[in-house]
Design brief:
CATH topology of the largest domain: Rossmann fold
CATH architecture of the largest domain: 3-Layer(aba) Sandwich
CATH superfamily of the largest domain: CoaB-like
Structural class: alpha/beta
Strand order of the largest sheet: 21-20-17-22-25-26-27-28
Number of strands: 28
Oligomer: single chain
Shape: globular
């Protein structure tokens, strides 16, 4: 007999002011079937809070009576008020097989973890400490003394994020509200990976702070080492607070583990130099070792990722490029700098790459996924807009997120990427071509197709376009408007196929997606097609999540469950690489 399903306990915690209530409201809008365990409290309601929905508001004697009757899974006194989680409400829901969410403070979450270790515990952090302090101040619900205490406690509690497997930064409420599903389906790719991060002495050293923060949030173990010059830009204490590890800044300092650079070199699975100045690049290329960073690199056999940052003239000098070329021949991975405003005040190449791009490359290297180096990839993205008049257009709901994720993952894996998109963005390391209509997209793709190895048509090209485009705005009238549409240009058909070009198409379908995808695969003479079902809440068009079926000539190659589009893109590139190299599994 089948055992009944036991529900999942989801605990959302974090310091006061990170936006737990806002995330919770959005979470229930996305999935009304979720259950919420309303906590008890003795504090008075805040504006907008409803008894029985936000909290169960009780008097102090009532709360103490509940403690005596052992009614709480956990309880605590916080800022002179009691808070408690009903044990009965939680256990009854779990026994019924229902997933239930708790939103509790950091102290309470620690108690629940000890009693319910199988739960899913998610720690929410603010975009920055400055934003957290601003949110707490903006409440205007406490005295200056009470506010100071709450701010101090919140900053201390941020340091407890390291105890959680799932840490989510609340930059965007929609993205954060998807965290329980994402956390339940996919472990962090960097969980438990050991990364030594070397910081060189340049103005971009302060940007390494964000790289360390995001790496630790992704579950990586990070140990920071700094050149003597780097410590004059950022103090070691800053990196210690974010990495939860002492910083190696003086390789002659006494160490209980022998030579510190040797210990670091043996510990690290990967060494990342962020930023890598011209001086550090030269030393590493020539095998010099006169401080902790260059000494650790020379003593290590781990893969190395370098993110250069310097003045544009220094970067483009033949000496610097020769050093980078020498490092590439030794399998070091270079995250090319961005173009933009430099410390000198002028604009040029030399800005440190964005933290997200650096971390994406680190993930690819550690996962053994730098398998697209040397490939030229062409990706289309977004829904085309077919003009009706100078103001209006015929289009669709595509956000271009899936195509952009495919382009960014390909770049992180070493490909030279061109992205033709109707939704312009600012992805670094990618040549981006903005277009609007299907014909404009076709022209842009035709201009690049001859030098392309892999074509990925993720764009949602409109099937129909207006027969005529009005030269002036069509005025509103009370009579119905007749809009005559004609079949639009078939971009994939017009691009054609040729030897050496691997072609991937997409099919957004409402039903029978395998059959529809297989038919399109044959009709368009594609090597692979990626099909997804539209009309499903929380995935596909406009969402940050997707679930797809990858189909090849032999049948279904892979079924990818609902995951963030970045991870779906990785699975698609895995399938592309396997098919190109004859390693794809047989159809099923």
């Amino acid at each position: 007999m089948t055992q009944p399903r036991t529900g999942l306990l989801i605990v959302i915690s974090g310091p006061s002011g990170v936006g737990k209530d806002t995330v919770l409201r959005r979470l229930f809008e996305l999935d009304p079937k979720l259950k919420y365990s309303v906590s008890y409290t003795t504090r008075p309601p805040r504006p907008g809070e409803v008894d029985g929905r936000s909290y169960s508001f009780v008097s102090e004697p009532e709360f103490l009576s509940l403690i005596e009757r052992k009614e709480f899974l956990e309880w605590a006194k916080v800022y002179d008020h009691y808070y408690g989680t009903s044990r009965r409400r939680v256990e009854d829901a779990l026994d019924r097989g229902e997933d239930i969410i708790l939103k509790i403070d950091v102290q309470g979450a620690a108690f629940v973890r000890r009693r319910k270790p199988d739960g899913l515990f998610i720690f929410i952090t603010p975009p920055s400490t400055e934003e957290l302090l601003a949110r707490l101040t903006g409440r205007n619900t406490e005295s200056a003394q009470g506010l100071a205490i709450r701010q101090r406690e919140a900053l201390i509690e941020l340091g407890l994020a390291k105890d959680y497997e799932h840490v989510v930064c609340n930059r965007d409420v929609d993205e954060t509200a998807c965290a329980p599903a994402a956390a339940g389906m996919s472990e962090g790719r960097l969980k438990g990976r050991r990364i030594a991060l070397g910081v060189s002495g340049g103005i971009a050293a302060y940007k390494a702070i964000e790289v360390v923060r995001q790496l630790t949030e992704s579950g990586a173990e990070v140990r920071v080492m700094m050149t003597p010059e780097a410590t004059r830009f950022v103090t070691p204490l800053t990196f210690e607070a974010l990495s939860y590890q002492p910083v190696a800044a003086d390789w002659l300092a006494p160490s209980g583990a022998g030579e510190r650079h040797i210990a670091l070199a043996e510990w690290a699975e990967l060494i990342a130099l962020v930023p890598a100045t011209a001086n550090t690049i030269a030393k590493v290329a020539m095998g010099l070792a006169d401080e902790i960073v260059s000494g650790t690199v020379l003593a290590s056999r781990a893969p190395i990722v370098l993110a250069p940052a310097m003045n544009d003239v220094m970067f483009t000098q033949p000496q610097t490029q020769d050093h980078l070329d020498a490092l590439r021949t030794r399998r070091a991975v270079i995250v090319d700098p961005a173009t933009g405003r430099l410390a000198s005040g002028k604009s040029g190449i030399g800005r440190l790459a964005a933290p997200e791009r650096i971390i994406a490359v680190i993930e690819a290297v550690l996962a053994g996924r730098r398998n697209l180096e040397g490939l030229r990839v062409l990706v289309s993205a977004g829904g085309t807009r077919e003009a009706v008049d100078p103001v209006r257009y015929v289009g669709n709901f595509s956000s271009g997120k899936m195509g952009r994720a495919l382009a960014e993952v390909a770049a992180a894996r070493g490909a030279e990427v061109t992205l033709v998109t109707t939704i312009p963005g600012n992805s670094e390391g990618i040549h981006e071509v903005p277009v609007d209509s299907a014909r404009a997209m076709l022209q842009a793709l035709q201009a690049a197709i001859d030098r392309t190895d892999v074509l990925v048509m993720a764009a949602a090209v409109a099937d129909y376009a207006p027969q005529q485009v009005a030269e002036t705005k069509v005025r509103r009238r009370e009579q119905p408007l007749d809009l005559h549409l004609q079949p639009n240009v078939d971009v994939l058909k017009m691009l054609g196929s040729r030897p050496g070009l691997f072609r991937v198409g997409f099919a957004a379908e409402t039903d029978d997606i395998r059959a529809q995808a297989g038919e399109k695969l044959t009709k368009k003479q594609l090597d692979l097609i990626v099909a997804n079902q539209v009309g499903v809440d929380g995935q596909g068009l406009g969402s940050d999540f997707n679930a797809v079926t990858i189909v090849g000539s032999s049948g279904v190659i892979a079924e990818v469950p609902r995951l963030p589009k970045w991870e779906v893109a990785g699975r698609i590139w895995d399938a592309i690489d396997a098919c190109r190299n004859g390693l794809a599994p047989a159809g099923q």
